[in-house]
Amino acid sequence: MPTNLYGPNDNYDLANSHVLPALLRKSHEAKLRGDAEYVVWGTGRPMREFLYVDDLADACVFLMEQGYDGPLVNIGTGTDVTIRELAETVMQVVGFEGRIVFDDSKPDGTPRKLLDVSRLAGLGWTAKTALRDGIRLAYEAAPFFREQAGATLDAVDLVALLQQQFGQIRAVLAGDAGDEGNLGRRHGAMTFSI
User: Fold this and answer.
1) What pLDDT, on the 0 to 100 scale, is given for residue 64?
2) Which of 12, 27, 52, 62 has its CA 20 to 30 A from that of 137?
3) In whole angstroms, what is the distance from residue 14 CA to residue 106 CA?
4) Does the pLDDT of residue 182 top 50, yes or no?
5) Is the pLDDT of residue 149 over 70?
6) How many C-alpha atoms does 103 have within 13 Å on its Cβ side?
7) Is 186 in a helix, a strand, or coil?
8) Distance (Å, rounded) from C-alpha 76 to C-alpha 114?
């Protein structure tokens, strides 16, 4: 049984998303608009546990490789943070320099949601992705981040690809690429694709 999950391909719709993707989107949009603040529902005091989605996949593979056939296993980090701490971490990752305003007219929900992960830890598995690192990965994979930074990311990707391709060309020309690497030869001319 997994805890609250987050990561790439999450739902960032502010009308029906979960808390972490909603905070990412709100903070990002507030930063782009130059807002002085962004609003977070509730008091900020409830505590929640979050697991990066790749860690869930890793735990599932771990259990399958172990041949686990026992009772239900909770999959989580075994640690929780307040919504206030989560919102502050999101602000830092996003680079929003305003302040958080908590709207206590909105519900807090359950005061605490934390799984007992001792069974899984006893088998030798623990989550690998720290919350801050996972939030950064989720933010960088979010469609609104990629749209805003698209040109920069595309240029970086293109430069890396060109460097790789030129390295392969040099290897072919030097005769060090074995069966001509991934480039191939046609009618005496080198071909490669980008």
Assistant:
1) 95
2) 62
3) 14
4) no
5) no
6) 8
7) strand
8) 8
Is the dihedral angle over the CA atoms 22, 41, 106, 4 positive or is it negative?
A: positive
Task: State the DSSP H helix or E strand holding residue 158, giving kind and residue range, or none if neither.
Answer: helix 143-174
**CB of 113 closer than 8 Å to CB of 4:** yes
CB 83 within 8 A of CB 4: no
CB atoms within 10 A of CB 2: 16
Pairing type for strands 50-52 and 4-6 reads parallel
CB neighbourhood size of 101 (10 A): 12
Q: Residues 158-168: pLDDT tens digits?
A: 555 556 665 56
- Cβ neighbours for 166, distance < 8 A, ≥ 6 positions apart: none
Beta bridge partners of 82: 47
Question: Distance (Å, rounded) from C-alpha 93 to C-alpha 65?
Answer: 35
Other CB atoms within 10 A of residue 124 CB = 8
Average pLDDT in the 164-173 region? 61
- Helix, strand, coil share (%) of the chain residues, nearest 5: 45, 15, 40
Neighbouring C-beta atoms of residue 126, cutoff 10 Å: 13
Q: 0.90 cut: is pTM over it?
A: no
Helix (H, G, I), strand (E, B) or coil at 131: helix
The answer to whether residues 14 and 26 touch, using CB atoms and an 8 Å cutoff, is: yes
Cβ atoms < 10 Å from Cβ of 91: 20
112-113 and 81-82 strand pairing = unpaired
